[in-house]
Recover the amino acids of this structure.
C-alpha cells in the first residue's frame, strides 16, 4: 500500500488536494483516507447507541448499515495501527493532518513535516497532482505480514495451494539478560541493486516445483525494539515445500541482498558490516 500525507494550515486547501488525489487514484486501485481529528466525531456523541456502548466499557464500537456501509469509534488507535489494518485491502492511503508522521508528505503553507517531503506548495491548487502521483509510486510501499499473505493468496494458482508459510524478523531489545539494551536499528539499502537481487531471489524461489507464489519485503529506516524488519511469505502446494522455501528465502535474502544495518545501544552505535 502506498501512503501519502497532506499537511498544512487550515486555510491551505488540504481537503481539496485529498479530493483531487482520490479522484486521480480511483482508477488505479482501492483507496482509504485518514483524517486527524481534534475532537470526538459526531457519530459518537452523547445519547447515540455507540456512545452508550463505549460508556459501558467497550474499547471499540462498529455500526453496520443494511447497504453494507459502516462506521467505527474507539478510545485508542494510532496512525500506525490504522495503516497496518488497511494495508491488506487497500492500494493507497491518503492521510490528512498528521504533520509528525514518518510517511511521504505534501507540505502546504510552509508547514514542517516529519516524513520525506515529496512536494511543497503554498496552496493546494499549486500542486501538480500527476507529478505527485509519479513520485508517490516510487516510494516504498507499506507492507505487513497480513498484506503480503493477502498478496500471495491472490495468485492465479492459489486453488492448488494447501500451505502458506511465513517468516517475520523483528528487532530484539537485547541478545542476553546482561547485554546493553538496543535503542533502535537503522537499515539502509543499495538502491537499485537491492531491488534487483530481491526480484531475482523471488523468481528463483517461485521456479521451484510446488511453489506457487513468494512475497519478500525488508523495511528500511529506523526501527525500534519489537518492530518488524523483514517478511518472507510462501504459498505452496504442500507444507514441506513452503517451509523449505521460507528458510532458503530468509537465508539468501540476508546473504545476497545489499542491506546495511546500524545498531544503536545505550552505550554505542556501529554498522554491523564493519564489525
Amino acid at each position: 500500500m502506498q501512503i501519502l500525507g497532506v499537511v498544512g494550515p487550515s486555510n491551505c486547501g488540504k481537503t481539496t488536494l485529498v479530493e483531487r488525489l482520490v479522484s486521480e487514484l480511483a482508477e488505479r486501485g482501492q483507496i482509504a483516507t485518514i483524517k486527524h481529528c481534534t475532537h470526538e466525531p459526531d457519530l459518537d456523541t452523547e445519547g447515540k447507541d455507540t456512545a452508550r456502548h463505549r460508556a459501558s466499557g467497550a474499547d471499540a464500537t462498529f455500526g453496520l448499515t443494511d447497504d453494507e456501509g459502516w462506521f467505527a469509534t474507539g478510545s485508542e488507535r494510532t496512525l500506525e495501527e490504522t495503516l497496518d489494518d488497511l494495508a491488506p485491502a487497500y492500494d493507497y492511503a491518503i492521510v490528512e493532518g498528521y504533520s509528525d508522521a514518518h510517511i511521504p508528505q505534501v507540505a502546504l503553507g510552509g508547514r514542517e513535516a516529519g516524513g520525506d517531503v515529496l512536494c511543497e506548495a503554498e496552496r493546494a491548487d499549486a500542486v501538480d497532482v500527476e507529478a505527485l502521483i509519479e513520485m508517490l509510486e516510487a516510494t516504498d510501499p507499506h507492507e505487513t505480514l497480513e498484506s503480503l499473505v493477502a498478496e500471495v493468496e491472490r495468485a492465479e494458482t492459489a486453488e492448488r495451494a494447501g500451505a502458506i508459510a511465513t517468516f517475520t524478523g523483528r528487532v530484539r531489545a537485547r541478545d542476553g539478560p546482561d547485554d546493553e539494551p538496543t535503542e533502535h536499528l537503522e537499515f539502509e539499502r543499495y538502491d537499485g541493486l537491492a531491488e534487483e537481487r530481491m526480484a531475482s531471489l523471488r523468481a528463483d524461489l517461485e521456479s521451484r516445483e510446488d511453489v506457487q507464489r513468494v512475497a519478500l519485503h525488508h523495511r528500511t529506516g529506523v526501527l525500534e525494539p519489537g518492530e518488524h524488519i523483514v517478511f518472507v511469505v510462501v504459498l505452496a502446494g504442500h507444507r514441506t515445500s513452503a517451509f523449505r522455501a521460507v528458510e532458503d528465502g530468509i537465508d539468501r535474502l540476508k546473504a545476497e541482498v545489499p542491506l546495511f544495518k546500524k545498531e544503536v545501544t545505550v552505550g554505542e552505535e556501529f554498522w554491523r558490516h564493519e564489525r
